[in-house]
Design a protein that fits this description.
Layout lengths: L6 H12 L13 H20 L16
Length: 67
């Protein structure tokens, strides 16, 4: 079983080691299972979007020019 108490540790470590700045906000913090599920799903979608080539520029949509 997954310990949801480790979720903040995971994202903090991921952010620190990847050089990414991550911001998460949930106005409803009443069910840790659903919050965890939503955080990982949103993160996966954001990461997929960031890694997908922009058809207009032919590069990743990065303001810093790197990913």
């Amino acid at each position: 079983e997954f310990d949801v108490e480790l979720v903040p540790e995971f994202f903090q470590a991921f952010s620190a080691n990847s050089g990414m700045t991550l911001h998460f906000n949930s106005p409803y913090w009443n069910n840790l299972h659903h919050i965890t599920e939503a955080l990982f799903k949103a993160f996966a979608r954001a990461l997929d979007s960031a890694c997908t080539l922009d058809s207009r520029s032919g590069d990743v949509p990065s303001t810093k020019g790197t990913l």
